[in-house]
């Protein structure tokens, strides 16, 4: 084994920049391996799963030697930088059909195969919460067999999740390697005239999700910039096929989640979103996408910089939005809204055990109740001048607490699937914000901790905010 000094001398003779990771640990440095510098701050894993996917295979065993980059080439640090580089010069003209599926022995290895299974059991299911197809759980994995770019993006995201819930020391280098390779391949793909826009969008969604898991705290627009660029430049929201539509609604949910955390309107205004089709099937998935769209409109009204008092026209527009939310909810079959069980649990807390037919129904219900809370917050800030402020406040706070208890009932007594738990982060925060019971606040905080520890989905900021509420 080479010492750090010998590594530096050997690399210097070969005119390749030394890898500080290997030098610091006195390890052999493989100059053909694409290594991404550590750029994100990570949380330590706090729980171990019962099983791990196949242990990482070294790059030398799975990769062909890569061409040495010129000394002037700088590795991009994120999808934001990749798209800024690519679209500042020229926008590629891309095809609208997916390539045929031909399995490749070059990209399907023990390591990548194990990570594909991780994706299909975890994040792929989360992404398909309102997509019964399911596109990301199955279709994306299928297409990755013929696309090194898509394969590397799927593996990067899967390895990142594993690093957060199992062995960070073992899996963090793997996730960084696949992520770096994905960025490099994405640059090349964006310059091709024959680039497949569907694959580009799916890859961008996957890599943006990786960045959200790795470091959700930086400017939220950077995580969404690549997908936003593709969607707006190709009008994918309205003209895309089912594969692209599935990607759009994942982008939409991510945009809503980050807008809530940052208390800003969504990056793409909901007025420019495709209108969810009426009578979509299954009904719970159709309502899920529609309530996300309506929620984005409420967020825009809640956090947009406007005057302290609404004009008559502005209030009428907002009240019609609230009416559309209510009518959409009322038109749903009972099994989609959730059926209360005959017995009441924790009667003193006002919570009820609720049954849902599928995870998408519970997730859509969480979005609905949160949309109502945000709508009432808007009305609290901009009350009607003609009415008594005190009476309005009491009435609206009563309604907010009703929907907060509905969220608590869904989260505490429904046995939510992991895909719905990921959706639950922001609804839980808003519910705990308004529920007066200290005991319920603490229990909801515990769910956020479970989501972070066992799913690798970042919730620490929301937990910190709730801790501040507990200290008041």
TrEMBL record:
Instruction: Supply the source organism for this entry.
Output: Aspergillus avenaceus
User: Pfam families recorded for this chain?
Assistant: Fungal_trans_2
- Chain intervals with Low complexity compositional bias: 58-72
Which InterPro entries does this chain map to?
A: Fun_TF
**GO biological process per UniProt:** positive regulation of transcription by RNA polymerase II
This protein is called Zn(2)-C6 fungal-type domain-containing protein
Where are the residues of the annotated region Disordered? 42-74
Q: Which residues form a coiled coil?
A: none
Query: What are the recorded GO MF terms, alphabetically?
Result: DNA-binding transcription factor activity; transcription cis-regulatory region binding
The terms describing its cellular component in GO are: nucleus
Keyword annotations: Nucleus
Compartments reported by the entry: Nucleus
Biological classification of the source = Eukaryota, Fungi, Dikarya, Ascomycota, Pezizomycotina
């Amino acid at each position: 084994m080479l010492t750090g000094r010998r590594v530096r001398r050997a690399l210097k003779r070969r005119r390749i920049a030394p890898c500080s990771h290997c030098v610091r640990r006195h390890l052999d440095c493989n100059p053909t391996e694409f290594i991404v510098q550590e750029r994100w701050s990570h949380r330590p894993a706090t729980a171990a799963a019962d099983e791990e996917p196949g242990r990482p295979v070294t790059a030398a065993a799975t990769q062909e030697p890569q061409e040495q980059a010129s000394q002037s080439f700088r590795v991009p640090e994120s999808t934001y930088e990749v798209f800024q580089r690519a679209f500042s010069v020229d926008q590629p003209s891309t095809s609208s059909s997916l390539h045929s599926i031909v399995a490749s022995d070059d990209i399907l290895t023990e390591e990548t195969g194990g990570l594909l299974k991780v994706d299909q059991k975890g994040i792929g299911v989360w992404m398909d919460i309102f997509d019964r197809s399911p596109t990301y759980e199955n279709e994306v994995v299928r297409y990755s067999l013929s696309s090194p770019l898509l394969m590397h993006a799927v593996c990067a995201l899967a390895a990142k999740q594993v690093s957060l819930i199992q062995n960070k020391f073992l899996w963090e280098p793997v996730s960084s390697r696949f992520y770096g390779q994905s960025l490099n391949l994405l640059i090349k793909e964006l310059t091709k005239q024959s680039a497949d826009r569907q694959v580009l969008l799916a890859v961008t969604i996957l890599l943006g999700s990786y960045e959200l898991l790795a470091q959700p705290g930086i400017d939220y627009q950077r995580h969404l910039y690549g997908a936003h660029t593709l969607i707006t430049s190709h009008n994918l929201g309205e003209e895309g096929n089912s594969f692209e539509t599935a990607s759009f609604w994942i982008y939409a949910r991510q945009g809503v989640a980050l807008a809530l955390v940052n208390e800003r309107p969504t990056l793409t205004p909901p007025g420019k979103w495709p209108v969810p089709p009426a009578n979509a099937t299954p009904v719970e998935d159709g309502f899920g996408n529609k309530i996300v769209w309506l929620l984005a409109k409420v967020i825009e009204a809640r956090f947009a910089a406007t005057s302290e008092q609404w004009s008559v026209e502005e209030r009428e527009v907002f009240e019609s939005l609230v009416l559309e939310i209510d009518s959409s909810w009322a038109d749903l079959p009972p099994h989609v809204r959730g059926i209360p069980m005959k017995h009441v649990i924790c009667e003193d807390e006002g919570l009820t055990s609720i049954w849902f037919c599928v995870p998408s129904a519970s997730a859509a219900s969480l979005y609905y109740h949160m949309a109502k809370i945000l709508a009432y917050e808007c009305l609290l800030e901009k009350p009607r001048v003609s009415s008594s402020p005190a009476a309005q406040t009491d009435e609206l706070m009563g309604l907010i607490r009703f929907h907060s208890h509905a969220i608590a009932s869904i989260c505490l007594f429904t046995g939510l699937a992991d895909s719905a738990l990921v959706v639950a982060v922001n609804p839980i925060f808003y519910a705990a914000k308004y529920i007066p019971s200290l005991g319920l606040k603490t229990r909801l905080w515990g769910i956020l901790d479970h989501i972070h520890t066992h799913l690798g989905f970042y919730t620490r900021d929301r937990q910190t905010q709730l801790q501040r509420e507990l200290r008041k």
